[in-house]
């Protein structure tokens, strides 16, 4: 629905967005690993002054089973204020929620209600018109909704790519790529919007990921290890950058929010040489895109008897960096180590020389470190990270992907979601929904009401 004036949650610049009011609600994608009951969107109260602070106050069950909700996004965001945006008065109102296993997408209305209402379902055969399946990440662009996908349509393994949906009708417009060059594997994407550059990363095709990490493929260095740079306007592949095939699975992409800058960060899950994880900075220099490893996180030795089968031969716990998030002011980078159960905070004011400022332990394959509000061992580790627009609050959930959960936490991953005060870098002991709060489902990604550090793009510095 169009507005007479721009949506008040849109900001022309990241500097303006950092002064936005604090979020009062958080939306959480939660899924049923057994696929015997529907996945859901849970809604958390994030207002410290509310009597329901830290509790689940809204809930929307989806109509089908087996979707496995993963990453989701808003129908519109601050990119609608870009000078060439054809729909400047579109409203941030709908959550666009893909099912990674089902290839089904849900459109949920959040306006004037706590529990979102499903208003449209895009069935798998409708999404297949794009040529893709297994939708994964959603970003709101100036002229449409971009949805990355891991697989091809009609049972084809690949290539994965990006589908574009209409902002208003949510109709599938088609495949984004005009010339994909050598790109075949897909995962995340984002852009340097003022420079007409889009960046994509690589994970694997559906058969490579849906039953968990395949040891032969990992040790054979068959998972993704490249970044791809594209001409955003012409929709053509520009350049491939290979991190080296020992660096398997470069996943989450976090470009600088400042639209005048052309650098960003990507987290790499693991190195097959030593099980370390890493974060790399990409940048444009000497007329070409380049990458440089700027953070290296080693594996931690462990008694094989306490490790899951998949790790016993190695006698160590890999950090497994599965998500990173960059504050809206581009000053802090948060890195989640799902394997070791650690979340790290870095000063990235110099993106080539990150300085570690703090570290918190929670869960972990061996540590099972409890949250200060609950004196009990925790399974799972900090996984999806979300940062508030003002950079003062950090949210972490504990489930990664059902098949991975089962491999690395075979005794169960549990269900919890924590909030961290970014300045003191300590857990908020009043905010720890866990266990039955999620009604048997596993929480995955968090989206904050009004936008967050991984939802919006800006055209003005």
From TrEMBL:
InterPro entries reported for this sequence: Se-bd (IPR008826), WD40/YVTN_repeat-like_dom_sf (IPR015943)
Reactions accelerated catalytically: methanethiol + O2 + H2O = hydrogen sulfide + formaldehyde + H2O2 + H(+)
Pathway recorded for this protein: Organosulfur degradation
A Gene Ontology molecular function term of the record: selenium binding
Entry-linked Gene3D superfamilies: YVTN repeat-like/Quinoprotein amine dehydrogenase
SUPFAM superfamilies in the record: 3-carboxy-cis,cis-mucoante lactonizing enzyme (SSF75011)
Domain of life: Bacteria
EC number: 1.8.3.4
Protein family according to the UniProt entry: Belongs to the selenium-binding protein family.
Protein name: Methanethiol oxidase
